[in-house]
Design a protein that fits this description.
Order of helices and strands: HEEHHEEHEEEEEHHHHH
Strand order of the largest sheet: 5-6-4-8-7
Strand content: 5-15%
Largest sheet: 5 strands, antiparallel
Helix content: 25-40%
Number of helices: 9
Shape: globular
Structural class: alpha+beta
Number of domains: 3
Number of strands: 9
Distance between the termini: 64 Å
């Protein structure tokens, strides 16, 4: 009962702040599925990729069990899990966050040299660097470094220190490269060299356009394939001939699509098809 008294108030505070929480058991892992949901025969939780209509009230399905509903968190169905739990977990992507999990001193040193400073939380062996913004989760992007965001869970180890920065392109690019080493993000559309600014748009316009495109993909609730293609088509129709697009812009678009469950191949195909349609 001591564990429950310690963990439950924190879980409720996190939920009230919009952070989906779940109990983690010994080994710092989620609780296994109940008998009715074993091997996902139920179809999975509604917010899981390829999920079905499962409405199981137990803390099943790992990260997809995370919730901000206090009635679920304090329900009798969750009570046994809280009594056995050893720590709080949360779904970073569900809270619009990304955790760069640095597992050792070498990984921390790399992050300090490579990534923008942000909120930092000490872990048993290293640090969590937390950024504002969600993306695809990927493990082992480099030795001792994992990315935990959409469709993943992280341990809650306290509020941390420092100002939380926006998710940088440097982190998104790492995940895209880890996803498809044989299929890197496409390069900017090959066009004759030019000088100066885009001949018909300002750099600020391009940045707003990329941000809106990422948002359009991220907010898609259905027909994700079609949304990704139409968004790529819109971006290329505006900037595909002026030489504005860079690898980093394309990486942001691909990362947004992969966060929604698109594979690297689908991203590449959609981009190629859009270019072909526009005659680029």
């Amino acid at each position: 009962m001591t564990i429950t008294r310690d963990l439950l108030p924190t879980a409720l505070d996190l939920a009230a702040a919009g952070v989906p929480v779940l109990p983690l058991r010994k080994g710092k892992v989620p609780f296994g599925n109940c008998r009715a949901c074993a091997k996902n025969v139920c179809g999975g939780r509604p917010n899981m990729k390829n999920a079905g209509p499962c409405q199981c009230p137990a803390p099943c399905h790992a990260w997809a069990a995370a919730t901000t509903d206090p009635q679920v968190i304090t329900s009798p169905t969750w009570a046994p899990a809280w009594r056995e739990a050893v720590c709080n977990g949360y779904h970073p992507g569900g809270a619009g966050l990304t955790v760069v999990d640095l597992d050792n001193a070498a990984a921390i040193a790399w992050a300090r040299e490579t990534l923008p400073a942000t909120r930092t939380v000490a872990t048993t062996r290293g640090e969590h660097w937390i950024y504002r913004g969600a993306m695809a989760s990927r493990n082992a992007i480099r030795p001792g470094v994992d990315i935990k965001s959409s469709m993943a869970y992280a341990r809650y180890l306290g509020p941390g220190t420092g100002h939380m920065a926006d998710l940088p392109d440097a982190v998104r690019a790492l995940a895209v490269k880890a996803l498809s080493p044989a299929r890197p993000a496409p390069h900017a559309v090959p066009l004759p060299a030019r000088s100066g600014e885009c001949p018909h748009r300002t750099p600020a316009f391009l940045e707003r356009g990329i941000a809106m495109a990422v948002e359009r993909i991220t907010e898609a609730r259905s027909a994700v394939h079609a949304t990704v293609y139409r968004t790529f088509l819109a971006v290329l129709s505006t900037h595909g001939r002026c030489g504005c697009l860079t690898d980093m812009h394309v990486t942001r678009l691909f990362a947004a699509a992969q966060t929604k469950g698109e594979s690297p191949r689908h991203c590449t195909d959609a981009w190629t098809n859009a270019r072909t349609t526009l005659g680029l």
